[in-house]
Every structure is written in structure tokens, then in C-alpha cells.
Design a protein that fits this description.
Layout: E1 9-15, E2 18-23, E3 30-34, H1 36-39, E4 43-51, H2 54-67, E5 82-88, E6 91-99, H3 100-112
Antiparallel strand pairs: 1-2, 1-6, 3-4, 4-5, 5-6
Length: 114
């Protein structure tokens, strides 16, 4: 598994149907608040991004895909089992996450065919 302690930007998928980039440290609690004007609806996240066992990650990923098929593209996520665990607008959630660096690599690999 790659060196994650220096990562400080993560994508969290299916946050009220959106993909959200957050600045956070792995394993440390954070808050993320965006207004309705910024996001189309008010978003308040509180929680932690963490590495989980692969089985838990697959369960979270499957639940996300079952809830919102628009996120089928994230089936190609790098196999680092990262999730966001916390609340979105007060509702407890577990959502798939990835580093922004891995997002960029995945984009180049899958969409630019380089």
C-alpha cells in the first residue's frame, strides 16, 4: 500500500449524490461545510477518512453503487480501501473515498488512454 500519511486531499463519493473533494489528514476527524450557493444544497460533513479491511470497503462500495448507479465509474477505484465514516447533514454514513492523486492517475489511465 502506498504512503498515505502525506496525503491531504481526498475525493468522497455519493455525498448527497455528489463527488466532493475535501482537505483532511488520513485518520483525523475533520469538518467540511459548503453553502447551498456553493454546492446547490447545504452540505455539512463531519468524520474521518480511514483505511479499512478490503471486505468492509467492498461492502461500502457495493452499497454506494446500489444506491446511486451514476457512480458505476468508481468501480475502477484504486484498490486502496479508503472510506469516509461520519455524518452528512447529520445522517450517519460510510462512503467510498480515494486520494486526489489516485483520482488523477485513474483518470489518465481510464479516460486518456496514456
Amino acid at each position: 500500500m502506498e504512503n498515505l500519511e502525506n496525503e491531504d486531499r481526498f475525493m468522497i463519493y455519493n455525498v448527497a449524490g455528489k463527488s466532493i473533494m475535501v482537505e483532511a489528514k488520513l485518520g483525523e476527524e475533520f469538518d467540511f461545510i459548503r453553502s447551498e450557493k456553493e454546492c446547490g444544497e447545504r452540505l455539512e460533513l463531519h468524520g474521518v477518512i480511514k483505511v479499512v479491511p478490503p471486505q468492509e470497503y467492498r461492502k461500502v462500495l457495493k452499497a454506494t453503487l446500489n444506491e446511486n448507479e451514476e457512480f458505476q465509474v468508481i468501480e475502477t477505484l484504486n484498490p486502496i480501501p479508503l472510506i469516509f465514516e461520519g455524518t452528512v447533514n447529520g445522517e450517519k454514513v460510510k462512503l467510498p473515498a480515494e486520494t486526489v492523486q489516485n483520482l488523477a492517475k485513474r483518470f489518465v489511465r481510464n479516460f486518456l488512454d496514456l
